[in-house]
Design a protein that fits this description.
Distance between the termini: 107 Å
Number of helices: 20
Structural class: alpha/beta
Number of strands: 15
Largest sheet: 8 strands, mixed
Length: about 550
């Protein structure tokens, strides 16, 4: 018995192939006769070019059938039968796709002209094409019919996730069509703006597909191979790419893979198109990131539906991305404004949900600065000049504050308040504030030299404990309270124009690093008699 199996396989395979060949040749010859009849009729000369393409396609189809399904072919193994199936599935489908597509386009034009007789003939051609497609698909089972041990179906080799992904494509097709039809109410204007790229190595496929899409109002470019497609994608922005799978050099899988690896192109929607309808091919495309999968020859309704669905999803994604970019910009603006009001660490705490922020800091240095006689100056210049002058001064102070790692608390009129050592602790905050005070004086001297002014500032500094908190619900403010704030303010108000007055507490911390003039004790409101010093300069290293 085992010795007889190969011979039985040979006889059954040849018989099945011969029968299949006859079933394919008969409708092919019939299609050719119908189209040739139209071609010879002068009334259809406007369609001569497309009719000639159908005739050429039927000749190609007939030759391929005779070559693949010849009676004189030698006996075939199971592997050879499956190889023949692959040829039948792809190679025979290619000319048949051209027959179907060109016949549909001619039929549409003749329907518009009211030529019912020619339309009926073309409808018969399309019916025959569908019959051919069905018979080509049935040839997939020739190998299994002849084997004593059935071949395990391809789908069983796929993982459950892959099967589910492929099943969902068909399961959701009707939902997809309904969704797109509903979303197409406003799609006509969008369609006119949509730019598509058709990638196929077969000229006839590129021709009829691009013509159909242009007729529907799309802007269409074509590429005859994968490399040309990649070049076009790098130079242009496309709303959708229709990509053939089986192509020489770079096939559709390779092109898709390169697209998904390119940061600029990875979000370009891609619809794979092929005569292959194996479940593993569909799943592979979807897992690689394809938007959808479309089998040739194209059903016009499904083609239109899927393209519009892909474009609709693409436009929704684009709008979502634009919305997200706008939200991000607005968020950045909000955060920037928040940082203009609050220290960064305090702003972060608010963003993280803290509703009540109050902290005690036992060792900080507070500085107050006030522009002397600024009220008199404001009476002699325009409001615009006043604001411009004040803004220039405070902007320079802000830059100094940031460079020394200090924290600006607020400005009140022509007064400027800052603190060192909080909200982020800094062990050298007393020296940093002293350096800042000296540089603030330099800023005023430089501005006077540039514009011939005579501005001067009084500065007061004190070191001690404070309480800091965020107050307000809709308009936030970060402020300080405590004796250190009061004393620093008194140091400024009891100072002299052009001088920096510091308390004894501050002096004791930095006396080795700076030069001072000791003042006689002064009476400070609420504090009594206090020993203070004028900070003059920093000691040489």
């Amino acid at each position: 018995m085992p010795d007889q199996q190969p011979e039985r396989l040979k006889r059954a395979s040849d018989s099945d192939l011969l029968d299949a060949g006859q079933q394919l040749l008969v409708p092919t010859v019939t299609i050719s006769k119908h189209i040739k009849g139209l071609r010879l009729n002068p009334n259809y000369s406007p369609f001569a070019e497309d009719l000639d393409k159908i005739v050429v396609a039927t000749k190609q189809l007939a030759n391929l059938i005779k070559q693949s399904l010849s009676k004189s072919a030698p006996g075939r193994s199971a592997a050879e039968i499956h190889s023949i199936n692959a040829i039948i599935k792809h190679d025979l489908s290619t000319p048949l796709i051209a027959v179907t597509a060109y016949s549909e386009m001619i039929q549409e034009d003749l329907e518009a002209e009211g030529d019912t007789e020619a339309c009926e003939l073309l409808e018969h051609v399309l019916d025959l094409s569908q019959t051919l497609l069905k018979r080509i698909k049935e040839l997939d089972y020739l190998g299994e019919m002849s084997l004593t041990t059935p071949v395990e179906p391809v789908s069983n080799s796929l993982n459950p996730t892959a099967i589910a992904a492929a099943d969902s494509v068909e399961r959701n097709l009707m939902n997809l069509m309904s969704e797109v039809i509903a979303g197409m109410r406003n799609s006509s204007e969008q369609r006119q703006e949509a730019s598509l790229l058709v990638v196929d190595d077969k000229e006839s496929n590129r021709d009829f597909l691009s013509r159909r899409l242009i007729k529907q109002g799309f802007s269409v470019d074509v590429a005859e191979n994968g490399q040309q497609a990649l070049n076009l994608l790098r130079d242009h922005d496309y709303d959708l790419v229709l990509l053939d799978i089986i192509m020489p050099e770079l096939d559709g899988y390779q092109v898709l893979e390169r697209l998904k690896q390119d940061e600029r192109l990875k979000h370009t929607p891609v619809m794979m198109i092929s005569a292959l309808d194996e479940i593993d091919s569909v799943v592979k495309c979807l897992e690689m990131g394809a938007e959808d999968y479309l089998q040739k020859p194209f059903n016009q309704i499904i083609l239109t539906t899927k393209i519009n669905a892909s474009l609709e999803r693409s436009w929704l994604r684009a709008r979502e991305q634009a919305h997200n970019r706008t939200l991000k910009l607005e968020q950045e603006k909000t955060e920037k404004l928040l940082l203009n009001i609050l220290p960064k660490s305090i702003a972060e705490r608010l963003k993280n949900g803290e509703s009540s922020i109050a902290d005690r800091f036992d060792d900080v240095t507070v500085l107050f600065a006030d522009i002397v006689n600024f009220s008199e100056l404001s009476a002699n210049i325009s409001p615009e000049q006043l604001v411009e002058k004040l803004n220039a001064i405070f902007l320079a102070f802000d830059l100094l504050t940031e460079s020394h790692g200090l924290e600006k608390i607020k400005t009140i009129g022509d007064a400027y308040m800052l603190v060192g050592g909080m909200p982020t602790p800094c062990p050298d905050h007393v020296n940093a504030v002293a350096d800042m005070a000296l540089e603030m004086q330099q800023v005023i001297h430089q501005m006077n030299a540039e514009d011939g002014g005579n501005l001067s500032i009084r500065i007061g500094i004190h070191t001690g404990p404070v309480v800091a908190a965020v107050i307000g619900k809709h308009k936030f403010s970060y402020d300080l309270w405590g004796d250190a704030v009061i004393v620093a303010s008194r140091m400024e108000s009891n100072s002299l124009p052009g001088h920096i007055q510091i308390s004894d507490a501050t002096y004791q911390r930095i006396k080795e690093n700076f030069i001072f003039d000791k003042r006689a004790p002064i009476e400070v409101k609420g504090q009594g008699s206090m020993q203070t010093y004028f900070l003059k300069a920093k000691k040489a290293p």
